[in-house]
Amino acid sequence: MALVNTHLPELTLISKGKVRDIYSVSSPDHLLFVATDRISAYDVILKNGIPDKGKLLTQISLFWFKKLGSIIPNHFVTANIDEMPEEVKKYEDQLKDRTMLVRKAKVVQIEAIVRGYLTGSAWSEYKKSGTVHGISLPPNMVESQKLPEPLFTPSTKAEQGAHDENISPEQAAKLLGQELYNQISQASLKLYSEAALYAHSKGLILADTKFEFGLIPSSSKPGEETLILVDEVLTPDSSRYWPLEGYEPGKSQPSFDKQYLRDWLVSAGFRKGLENGKEGEEGKGWLIDEDVVQGTRKRYEEAVKLLMG
């Protein structure tokens, strides 16, 4: 059975996102991140979840936090319930394998997206203008083609239910300040390149991904802040993974992410509500068919097996 809502009455829920419930704990410098089995598409949370999805996402994030820790520090502290504050331990039946104790950070208000292939909204923009986030690309590129080099293409962080807005690197630099922008763009590109190389060795193409960053007080320089990686990292919710076998530019690719669910929603007529500006009304109570639930779960499980097997 899918866990779509957590119930931890002795803890204070401070944020409920599309997937994660975030709680405060007795340790003032930490937060509890719980990955539920909720699933969203087109910025709408669907009524039923995908069983064990939160556990699979947590497993993948932990793997990547460890693997990429030498590039940039991250917010992960522990996933072991026994090492968490006392008030957390009584909820082990809900939290086991889907929960991280993390360092509290001031979240940077952009989505740090890196694209290695021409797909999704990048492909849509390129067809219209020959650009991606305002960056000019060579002519005559085709859908799913590998980009000459990975691109850092930020977006705004919208409120839940609203859509993130693509912005140019110049706009992001103005929003963040040049120094912080440089730190984030360089770290994002390095993280993507390292992860894409590893994924390729496992028979996967990492087409694009989204990182989030935060700032914590510097331990070595009083009054200054240190940039860290936060939230989830390189999961099928935040990334597009394609099978390397059968990859063929010029068309859309099969994927180990939510695209299968998105395609079903479009075919079921769900997308029409979004185009008419009724996403809240149309999305409320929308049930995913059981075969689509199982098909989506299978794709998440396969991604874990390929990456970590």
Automatic annotation (TrEMBL):
An example Gene Ontology biological process: 'de novo' IMP biosynthetic process
Database matches in PROSITE patterns: SAICAR_SYNTHETASE_2
Any Pfam family: SAICAR_synt
Record-level GO cellular component terms: cytoplasm
One MF term in the entry's GO annotations: ATP binding
Keyword Ligase annotated: yes
Pathway stated in the Swiss-Prot or TrEMBL entry: Purine metabolism; IMP biosynthesis via de novo pathway; 5-amino-1-(5-phospho-D-ribosyl)imidazole-4-carboxamide from 5-amino-1-(5-phospho-D-ribosyl)imidazole-4-carboxylate: step 1/2
The entry's keywords: ATP-binding, Ligase, Nucleotide-binding, Purine biosynthesis
Domain annotation SAICAR synthetase/ADE2 N-terminal: ranges: 14-267
Cross-referenced InterPro entries: SAICAR_synt/ADE2_N (IPR028923), SAICAR_synth (IPR001636), SAICAR_synthetase_CS (IPR018236)
UniProt keyword Mitochondrion, yes or no: no
EC numbers on record: 6.3.2.6
Record SUPFAM superfamilies: SAICAR synthase-like
HAMAP family the UniProt entry points to: SAICAR_synth
Family as reported in the entry's similarity comment: Belongs to the SAICAR synthetase family.
Protein name: Phosphoribosylaminoimidazole-succinocarboxamide synthase
UniProt source species: Paramarasmius palmivorus
Taxonomy of the source species: Eukaryota, Fungi, Dikarya, Basidiomycota, Agaricomycotina
